[in-house]
Amino acid sequence: MTPDNSKPGNIILLKKAPKSSKNLFLIHEGTGRIESYFRVSQHLHPGFNIYGVCPVESNKCKDHLEPEQISIPRMAGTYRQTVEQFIGKLPVYVAGWSLGGSIAHEMAYQWQKEKKTVRFLGLLDVIPPGSQVDDVEFNLKTELGLVVPYISNEGLIAKLSEATSITSIWNIIQRELSHEDFDREAFMKSDVDWVNIIPNYNQLTIQDFFLIVNQVRGYYRALVEYEPEGSVDCTVHYFQASDSVITNVDAWKPYSSCLACHQVPGEHYTMLNQQNILEFAQIFNQVLDSFR
């Protein structure tokens, strides 16, 4: 089946299995990208067509830098409907790394309520619900605090300080902030792990840089606020990076009928890197083998 990228959800074929009707859908991670799946998908089970599920672009996201108010259930509902256009009544195989795993879990729960068969649900080093307790409100103080400490243009700082809405703050940044006036290196060293989240930060324009920053912030807020309504009936296969900082994996148990844990090499940001993908794929494929 050839994906139609004009459809909502933007599903991308990563690997074709010519003689198989089984389809595995890998949900985008917390930057809204699926590149982390490109290499590993080529080593995944030959009995599955492998697809990446990208975010649905909104006009607001394209035209404005401000962070969006989004939710995991809403994203999952959109992606679920898009996947159904591809597979019809076939059983579902879905997985995701990081944020993508939380979205995949919610998709499975929504399918369960519709009596659709979820054959495989894979969570790749995914933070359990309720683990993050950060204050994730977006207001004038948070937006100014995010950028002003790294701006050297006093006139621009004064103009931002007079802004009366989040939209106006980001409109000013979009129009007037130059590369020379913003200390990107200092920003990347802040308390958020931006270097791992945006490894190509030096190659981006100011606008593209803050589009990604605020997309990540919007997704993170959705993750912090996410609390599944209930448990999924299928086994949840959790693939934990051996050096992961996520240690409370058992916190997923209330949201699954059975939690099966599989340890894979690396840490959160390297488990799907070149040095680890062969061993990861071997372990992942052993699980998929049970569905042949």
Rounded Rg = 20 Å
Oligomer description: single chain
Low-pLDDT segments, ≥5 res? 1-9
Task: Output the structural class.
Answer: alpha/beta
Mean pLDDT equals 91
Order of helices and strands: EEHEHHEHEHHHHHHEEH
User: Count of helical segments?
Assistant: 11
Give the N-terminus to C-terminus distance in angstroms.
20 Å
Overall spatial form: elongated
| Strand order, largest beta sheet | 1-3-2-4-5-6-7
Sheet of most strands? 7 strands, mixed
The overall strand count is 7
Strand content range? 15-25%
Helix content: 25-40%
Fold blueprint:
Blueprint: E1 11-15, E2 23-27, H1 38-41, E3 49-53, H2 59-63, H3 72-87, E4 92-97, H4 99-113, E5 118-124, H5 140-147, H6 154-161, H7 166-176, H8 184-188, H9 194-197, H10 206-225, E6 232-241, E7 256-264, H11 277-289
Helix pairs in contact: 3-4, 6-7
Can you describe what's shown?
The protein is of the alpha/beta class. Strands 1-3-2-4-5-6-7 form a 7-stranded mixed sheet, sandwiched between helices. It is built from 11 helices and 7 strands. The longest helix is centred in the last third of the chain and has 20 residues. It is elongated, with a radius of gyration of 20 Å.
In brief, what are we looking at here?
This protein is an alpha/beta fold and 292 residues long. It is built from eleven helices and seven strands.
Brief descriptors of the model:
292 residues, alpha/beta, 7-stranded mixed beta sheet, 37% helix, elongated, disordered N terminus
